[in-house]
Amino acid sequence: MSRGLNKVMIIGHLGREPEMRYTPSGRPVTTFTVATSRSWNTVDGERHSETEWFNIVAWGNLAEICKQYLNKGQQVYIEGRLQTRRWEDKEGNKHSSVEVVANEMMMLGDRREALTANSHSADGSDVSEIPSADEDEFPF
After folding, report:
1. Which terminus in the chain has less CB density within 10 A, N or C?
2. Domains of the chain, earliest start first
3. What average pLDDT does this structure show over 89-95?
């Protein structure tokens, strides 16, 4: 039997403040968006850039941490899995949305020296330290 792999790693900036709510059973869930940008030059030397937006969902302890520590515009590393959510509205129209269900989050950017200790995984455990701002490599 073969196994599949569904893993997503994103480094980007929060597009809005995280929103936390609770399920009827009392489980916290936080949602927010992260934008990633890429730039390239065409054969003619013309500069292009493109921004991709991702819907992020965090559950449980990680949801509470994201709500407490993340802010709009902040750079963040998110690791998780892709999930497609499907629903039908009141008029019977079918909808779907692709989202990243986060299981790890690391705060990056200017304030990261002060916030590195607050980097957590979905189970609330601390994750490894991220590279310094001088390094050009990604933390994976």
Report:
1. N
2. 8-38+48-112 (2.40.50.140)
3. 93
Give the separation between CA 124 and CA 104, rounded to whole angstroms.
9
Distance CA 111, CA 68 (A): 15
Residue-level pLDDT at 123: 55
**Residue whose entry in the numeric block shows the structure tokens 């990243």:** 100
DSSP state of 3: -
Q: Give the residue among 135, 136, 68, 134 at the shortest CA–CA distance from 105.
A: 68
Average pLDDT of the chain, as a whole number:
84
Confidence grade of residue 2 (pLDDT, cut at 50, 70, 90): confident
Q: Which of 76, 69, 78 is nearest to 121 (CA)?
A: 78
